[in-house]
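Subject: Interface between my chains keeps coming out wrong

I've been trying for a while to get a sensible model of this assembly. When I model each chain on its own everything looks fine, but I need the whole thing in one frame so I can look at the contacts. Pasting all components below, labels as-is. Any help appreciated, I'm running out of ideas.
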Amino acid sequence: MGRIPCCEKDNVKRGQWTPEEDNKLSSYIAQHGTRNWRLIPKNAGLQRCGKSCRLRWTNYLRPDLKHGQFTDAEEQTIMKLHSVVGNRWSLIAAQLPGRTDNDVKNHWNTKLKKRLSGMGIDPVTHKPFSHLMAEIATTLAPPQVANLAEAALGCFKDEMLHLLTKKRIDFQLQQSAPMNTNTTYMTSKSEENDNAIEKIKLNLSRAIQEPEMLPSNKPWDPTRAISTNFAGTCSAFPASVTGFQYGSSSFGHDGAASPWSQSMCTGSTCTAGEQQDQLHEKVEDENGEESEGGKGMRNGSTIFNADCVLWDLPADDLMNPMV
DNA sequence: AACTTCCACAACCGCAAGGGA
DNA sequence: ATCCCTTGCGGTTGTGGAAGT
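Reply #2:
Try treating it as a single job with all components included. I did that and got this:
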């Protein structure tokens, strides 16, 4: 026995909604509300399944929805919350009046995720890729690490080439435009792309071969991570900032950054469960001062001294919005 | 101008949770 | 306690338009 379909697919229209259908649905819901979605299409004279009607209403027709570009503040909120709760889109959308989980999910997948990747930050863990590699290095024996790194670099190379190639195009486009004071651009020589990749590989190998530089079981220290891994080489992250910052200027946008702390997600011990437990109070704090200010900041980690070397590229190579 | 690729957004699918009978 | 239905959710796919070649 298969699963019972949500509706008779034979008699149901699919695909894009027409303005007439939108009108029918909107006016029906305005009169009768949204009780029992299964009956709504039938009563409203629509050849749609109830589920499709519900989605159309909740994601598009609802009068309280906000359409159009996400603001910088909204993007900040999404990234901040995503670092805590992960892909809990409905939870994130609940903090953004007028935005749906679908909106947030799409925006994340098409824009924000790529931006973070372009900055050298893993969009899943919100940690620098270099930190993740260092974490791997602390948990595996050197021979395993070497094998893993070899495999990983094979994957990275394609990705890096893609990013660097895109950047080269950006450079060409930017030449006619006024230069942003925050950014510098690589030359377009392909040999420099190769050099950058080789440099990453070399430094990764170096880090792997020097495990004593990577103390085990040390949680990620965002303060040091920013001040050494990013701020040390990347002017876009001021060293004085005590917390992690998804400021818009960090993405190469105009406008001021609004700093926020990533203290809730520190180190490898940061689990989804813990994150969720902390969500409530964190969300409450969101509009005010960061009450835990630095609570999660741990002292004493030197992991990013080695880490910093790993991505020893010109600052803007990591920080520019390459994608 | 024609074709291809990329991107953003809308829509769909299947699973899980919640609630009433 | 169990079943069934409805709703909510997150992942995935489809589609139209923009951008690039």
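Reply #3:
Confirming on my end. Residues 3, 6, 14-17, 51-52, 55-56, 59-60, 102-103, 106-107, 109-111 of chain A lie near DNA strand B (CB under 10 Å from a C1').
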